[in-house]
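Running this now, will post back.
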Amino acid sequence: MGMDIPARNRWVDKSLRAYSEPHRVYHGRDHIETCWQILHQTNYKFTNEMKLAIMFHDIVYNPLSKTNEEDSVKVFKTFVDDANVSNAINSQDVEYFILGTKHNKDAYEMAQNDEELGYVLDVDIAILAA
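Update: finished.
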């Protein structure tokens, strides 16, 4: 993905700040780091869209909100515009994966027929199985 270095650095900093917010218990930096470790331990070929979904799926987390995933999609869209990567990725796929991390009945039904969504959901909740 052809992202310039300053944009990449800005978004790494933004994501680290977001995942380090003091109110995060589970959806914090340890969670996202564990997701990345799992992603790198498997032989599955994760697409850039899957990796971005994992990176952004909990970037917004308010324990009292029911729209964290939708709000995370909004932040992801800001990233796409800022980093100028719309031609390098399928943003709709990333948004679909992020919304899937709501882990509701619909997401699990879709994952039965969508291997990529299934892997994203598995990575997201793998720490719970450990």
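Residues 68-83 form the longest helix (16 residues). More later if anyone needs it.
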